[in-house]
Amino acid sequence: MTATGQDTPLAGRVVAVTGASKGIGWAVTQALTARGARVIAGARDVSGLSLDGAEFHPLDVTDEASVAAFAGAAVRAGVAALVNNAGVGSFQPIEEITLAEYHRVMDTNVLGTLLVTRALIGHFRERHARGGGSQVVNVTSDVSARTFANGALYTASKYAQRALTQALAAEGQGYGLRVTEIRPGMVDTFFAGSVQGAEHKAEWLRPADVADAVLYALTAPPHARIDEVLLHPVVQEVAF
Ligand code: NJP
């Protein structure tokens, strides 16, 4: 039972969330704990964070040892679902992309998704052997399948994250894993060094809108697989 008295499939479930300290990840963590889930929440800086039902762990998704420690905590807690949400944005013309920026974006968005997922697959296989199912929800982007000027690096990372997501879905079918890609358009967060609540973002999606999409995937009945959710603020151009 949740605080609201409603029985939901999330009550008592353990969900690991990356990039949980702010923006979309924080909203996902809030939404999950409000429905009675236990969240193993990770970000590089988790100082000062606390929320009933959430356990905060320092996590750098680009660092194998850090990922191993986070995954260990999630496995010990009995994790049943992973939300790969940690990500960074970077927008410039191709001739200005430095090697350092390339690695920051690709390592966070692509390698990070790979490392955290890989660290939990053995546990998901064991759950399957015991008759349990598992879920992975990857927060990618509306631009995981289209691109634009100044978007080469970011969209390359998101196309790659989409490919990882779809390959995982195919592989995971063999061990009871359901995989969902969440593809939000413009969301009012701290993304790419921006300011949350800035006036020009007034009509953008709220982090809670994306959290609702994540919850939709996580609460789908066991016989249903939500492959992807594409959502935009109405002010954004219609694009697929
Ligand atoms: O961004 P932000 P969003 N290891 O900056 C964490 C996608 N998306 O919520 O580590 C672990 O408010 C960081 O914490 P910290 C986007 O691509 C967004 O908007 O302490 N965690 C913070 O908790 C991304 O995949 C928009 O710096 C790391 C969080 O990630 C996802 O949404 C549009 C980390 C980022 O919070 C969430 O981004 C779209 C690391 N190495 C897709 N590096 C949009 N906002 O418009 C960062 O299409 N974090």
TrEMBL record:
PANTHER family: DEHYDROGENASE/REDUCTASE SDR FAMILY MEMBER 7B, DEHYDROGENASE_REDUCTASE SDR FAMILY MEMBER 7B. Pfam families: adh_short. It comes from Deinococcus carri. Signal peptide: none annotated. This is Oxidoreductase Rv0484c. Belongs to the short-chain dehydrogenases/reductases (SDR) family. SUPFAM superfamilies: NAD(P)-binding Rossmann-fold domains (SSF51735). It comes from the Bacteria. Keywords: Oxidoreductase. InterPro entries: NAD(P)-bd_dom_sf, SDR_fam. Gene3D superfamilies: NAD(P)-binding Rossmann-like Domain (3.40.50.720).
